[in-house]
Amino acid sequence: MNCLLETREETQVLLDYCARALSAPGAALVEAHLQSCPRCQEFAAAQKNLSEALDLWQAPEVSLDFNRRLYQRIDAEAAQGSWWKSLLPQFERGPFQPTLWRRGLPVAVAACLLVTVGIVLERPGKSPNSAPKDMAQIESIQPEQVEQALDTMDLLSEFSHHVRTEGQESKL
Amino acid sequence: MVERVKDDMGGAAAALDFDAELMLRVKEGDGASFGVLLEKHRSSVIHFLYRMVQNHAVAEELAQEAFLRVYRSRVTYEPTAKFTTWLFRIATHLALNALRDGKNERSQERLDDDSSDMPVRQVSDLRPSVEQSMVYQAKLAEIRSAIAALPEKQRAAVLMHKYEEMEYSQIAKVLGCSESAVKSLLFRAYETLRARLAHMA
Fold it and tell me: DSSP alpha helices (H): ranges in chain A?
């Protein structure tokens, strides 16, 4: 048998031997090879040392309250879930029955659309009935201003009558 | 040469997995079966996660999340894979996410986290001396540092292969890659570790 370190596949076999993952006949074949191959012996020894070194690293014990904490979390989630589930039948009873929901949904959507259209049309800036500027000015004239204007008109008519009378007299 | 039992679960073969049977009982509302699964796999999951993130508190937190996800998934559970493959897939996913999210934050914790790594001596009259204890702690620090320095997937593969004694096919399913990819990951990881820890012989 050639040196097992020649190819990666055969090195893998040697690694499996070191990990005790080979069958008895397979392990026997590798052991026979190791007797005559110093390179493979060296590799196997290094891998064995590594394995022993890694064995030194023991994981700490599991906390005593690990299960309790986990079940607390499970119970908390279950309680949260049951709260939602308890609400669900309320919605599915009476007016909230699924069939009613299905029938009422298009009507509700249509109503919402109508309301939206109404709001858009009633916006003050876009209203077709909005008053023109001059009308607003008329609405803002006070009664005193009207009286003053009438008095002025009377004075003007008196003045014109007076001027006409004077003109006729001078002609005579 | 290598005789590995194929764990390709599917259809009727899944029925042979006792854990899958327990999980199916959990699906039917049997809470006690979940307790059995928890007792059976709790330590291996926590130990794997501890060696991945190298922090005991974080490892237990992640393990809680892993088992919680298993419990949450009970309703939709289908035994398409070996139960432990599924469980370790969840655990590995959580560990890799934790490493990516809080790598810098936890690096300091790792150094501070002694986590009672000193193994309990079985023989009462052979207490380790201070010197022995210091040598042991130094070796342990080197091992932890060498493992932590491995790329995430190599680390996960080595921990599952060495400490959980998983087969290549199962590691491949947990990591979502081919068996040959797992062999390659392990080959490179052990090569690196042999070089880094050669002086410990």
Answer: 8-18, 24-34, 38-55, 66-92, 98-121, 133-139, 143-171
The reply to whether A24 touches chain B by the CB within 8 Å rule is no
* Binary contact (B162, A57; C-beta < 8 A): no
Q: Does A120 touch chain B (CB under 8 A)?
A: no
Map tokens 């040697």 to a residue: A14
Residue B113 Cα distances to A60, A71, B116, angstroms: 11, 26, 9
Whole-model pTM? Answer: 0.68
CATH of B9-111, one of 3.30.450.40, 3.30.300.30, 3.40.50.300, 1.10.1740.10: 1.10.1740.10
Q: Which chain A residues have a beta carbon less than 8 Å from that of B139? A: 53, 56
Which chain B residue's Cα is nearest to A69?
Answer: B64
Instruction: Give B193's contacts in chain A (Cβ within 8 Å).
Output: 50, 54
ipTM of the complex, rounded to two decimals: 0.80
Closest CB from A19, A26, A45 relative to B1: A26
Contact residues for B63 (Cβ-Cβ < 8 A; gap 6+): A66, B42, B45, B46, B49, B91
- What's the domain count of chain A? 1
Contact criterion met (CB below 8 Å) for B85 and B7 = yes
Task: Name chain B contacts of A85, Cβ cutoff 8 Å.
Answer: none
Give the pLDDT mean for B11-36: 82
Domain that holds residue A19: 8-55
What pLDDT, in 10s, does the model give residues A13-37?
A: 899 999 888 999 999 999 999 999 9
- Tell me which residue has tokens 């655990």: B91
> Are B157 and B182 spatial neighbours (Cβ–Cβ below 8 Å)?
yes
pLDDT at A167: 61
Contacting residues of A for B184, CB less than 8 Å apart = 8
Q: Do B60 and A60 touch (CB under 8 A)?
A: no
Q: How many CB atoms lie within 10 A of CB B43?
A: 14
Cβ neighbours of residue B160 closer than 8 Å, sequence gap 6 or more: B48, B88, B166, B170, B171, B174
Q: What does the alpha-carbon distance between residue A56 and residue B124 come to, in Å, rounded to a whole number?
A: 19
